[in-house]
Design a protein that fits this description.
By secondary structure, this protein is mainly alpha-helical. It is built from 10 helices and 4 strands, in the order ααααββαααααββα. It folds into 2 domains: 89 residues, Orthogonal Bundle (Arc Repressor Mutant, subunit A); 86 residues, Orthogonal Bundle (Arc Repressor Mutant, subunit A), CATH 1.10.10.10. The two termini are 23 Å apart.
Length: 217
């Protein structure tokens, strides 16, 4: 069984939040966690070909190609990309290699890539989620018993975005679909507070697994 989050753990939670922050602030819509994982994989083993990264992440080549183009200056749909990587042709002309841009290198250095890649591993077998969702989970872990409004204020999220995110982390999404089961929304009868947020046993185990790479250092 996972242990309760301790004051020392909260320091590591803050380190994870700090490492995610540069990616979370790149654009207005929440970045997909799979995009972050792909970027970190490229950053830890720069100069490889698309197929190499697809194998490392156990993703289909076409799926990986969409993510890689989103990380470039121009996304495949013609929209603006993140500008974190570039695709270059080797001098031999036999394959394309993927490298970080200056902007990408600065982000990678701020994110403690190897540790973050390991920290995000628990989510690899879950349905696709965003960086915002992971951020909310970590904030709840460090502030159990707080209300949704308290967590929203800490993250500067509006009520609609916060509601959608916490229900996605709970057993049931706001649209009725299955949630991740990582948090519990408890009804309470306290002054100015009707709900309180706690980790479930599964949520606590996920946070513990995320913290393990930092503790090993």
């Amino acid at each position: 069984m996972a242990h309760a989050i301790t004051p020392n753990d909260r320091t590591d939670v803050e380190a994870l939040l700090s490492a995610l922050r540069p990616f979370a602030n790149l654009r207005q819509r929440p970045a997909a966690l799979r995009t972050v994982a792909a970027f970190l994989t490229i950053a830890t083993n720069e100069g490889r070909a698309l197929n190499d990264y697809a194998r490392a992440l156990k993703k289909h080549r076409a799926y990986m190609s969409r993510i890689v183009h989103d990380l470039c200056d121009l996304a495949r749909n013609g929209g603006q990309g993140l500008g974190l990587i570039e695709i270059r042709e080797e001098k031999r002309g036999k394959r394309l290699e993927i490298l970080l841009t200056d902007r990408g290198r600065a982000i990678a250095e701020a994110m403690r890539c190897q540790q973050m890649l390991l920290a995000l591993r628990p989510f690899s077998k879950m349905p696709p989620i965003t960086v915002r969702t992971v951020t909310v989970l970590l904030i709840i872990a460090a502030n159990e018993g707080k209300s949704p409004a308290d967590i929203a204020r800490l993250l500067k999220l509006n009520r609609a975005d916060m509601s959608k995110t916490i229900y996605g982390l709970a057993d049931r999404k706001s649209n009725g679909g299955p949630g991740l089961g990582l948090i519990q929304i408890a009804e309470v009868s306290m002054l100015n507070q009707k709900q309180a947020l706690f980790l479930t046993n599964q949520g606590r185990a996920v946070v513990e697994e995320m913290l393990a790479p930092l503790r090993s250092q």
